[in-house]
Amino acid sequence: MVTTFIALSILTASALLVLGNLRMVAVDTFDAMTSYARRARQTGQMTRHVAYFALWLMIFIMSYA
Questions:
Q1: pTM score, two decimals?
Q2: How far apart are CA 59 and CA 25, in angstroms?
Q3: What angle do CA 61, 14, 28 make, to 5 degrees?
Q4: 3-state helix, strand and coil shares in percent for the chain, rounded to the nearest 5
Q5: How far is CA 14 from the centre of its chain?
Q6: What whole-number distance in Å separates Cα of residue 54 and Cα of residue 44?
């Protein structure tokens, strides 16, 4: 019971911290994704990374089907 309370307290605190800084989290996520895409395009590895992402997306979707 105490472990559940501690886990839920940590989860609630984490959610409140993220929601309180949602704009900053969104900006940081967007910056990270754009810099990743830029580097992948410059090195010519975009196709490989997109294929790998599609593979994992397909595995994830098929696990729920």
A1: 0.52
A2: 27
A3: 70
A4: 90, 0, 10
A5: 15
A6: 17
